[in-house]
């Protein structure tokens, strides 16, 4: 208990870490405990939604303590979280399109590019800071490939042949990837000294933490809820 | 365990935090583990009841430790708890009226006003103490809108068209919001120096913690039990 610290009333970063951890925890309980109500073929998708928020919940507990102890961005933990949860989101695209004939190769392709995106991003943000724009560029290309695949590539075609609720859900998830995920590269650019063609945005790192924390909640819980409601509509 | 402290035998605040955490924890287990016995369409409501007490349980564990460490009201944690659980209570109103044709817009409206109520309340209580009556007024208006909506507005009409057990449960929940929830603004006024038109009530902050802890238990567990028994009566 001597470890407990007071949180300043205007510590918005700490606040969003705390709310984030609780929201992720509650969302996981929600997804896990709702499993029984779905037809068998939808359960795995909802279970994976729960895994994504559950992994995030545990990371958020760490990140909160880290922030509390050092008042510094927990970049390391963020990337560990992403490297587990982003590939799982790729799995979700595959799972909802499976009935329409999606092949495992589509899943592995998306996973592969998501890992490239995150590993190169980490190098640029935390290891080789001097070459951050080169690493960021590789990362950005991998991100672009994912966006292309789901918006215009094979995944899109499968979603169209599935039609109905699957197509609707796929389209919403595509918007998550295009808009919701875009906050991370934007934050990367703003947080890099001389981030874009030498322009220095001088954005406070702790401001970016607030943006990431809100973004994560939307991207993980929102993404999961889209799949949850697809499962609700498709069961029974 | 070296962190463990003795609790004074007359530390009633600490006592209610401790009992509160245990009661919330037990209530969550109760709601979660009863899910299977209900018809599918009632499960989500009972699951959300469990989420409300579960989120509260985790916050109570923190608040207990905080109280233990600083002998000070854990205002911050209370608001984090509320900002997650009060919107979920609004979701409950929507869920039980869904069969009667409640629209999602009703849910979002209630959620919106509950968030306004809590955020402005937090500003008045913890950030801009000098302007606490202005913030409290805005918060109170938002609270009033919620009360109006469920007692006399659209939600009331839907409950009446549903009739039967749903109407009965809706009415009980309305009383929770009008009477049970009212202890929080009353506490806010009593706890503010010169709270009402300059009258200073000089109420001890720790007295208010005892009231809040008892109120929370009634409002969260009681609210959940109303929904639980509605689900029992409507299943089979
Ligand atoms: C393109 C790009 C990036 C993309 C990161 C993304 C897209 C992360 C997504 C995270 C998600 C979805 C978390 C879930 O909540 C980095 C690594 C910042 C480096 C700069 C270039
Ligand atoms: C109107 C008003 C308030 C209302 C708070 C309420 C209504 C809180 C409800 C909490 C619940 C229901 C917790 C669950 O157990 C504040 C923020 C104190 C500020 C002053 C004005």
Task: Please characterize this protein's 3D structure.
- The structure is a homodimer of 236-residue chains.
- The termini of chain A are far apart.
- Chain A has one domain: Rhopdopsin 7-helix transmembrane proteins (Up-down Bundle).
- Helices cover 79% and strands 0% of the residues of chain A.
- The model of chain A has no long low-confidence stretch (mean pLDDT 89).
- The first copy, chain A, is globular and about 50 Å long.
- With 236 residues, chain A is mainly alpha-helical.
- Chain A contains nine helices and no strands.
- Chain A has helices at 12-34, 40-70, 75-97, 104-127, 132-151, 154-162, 164-180, 183-191, 205-234.
- Chains A and B meet through helix 1 of A and helix 2 and helix 3 of B.
- Bound molecules: retinal (RET) (2 copies).
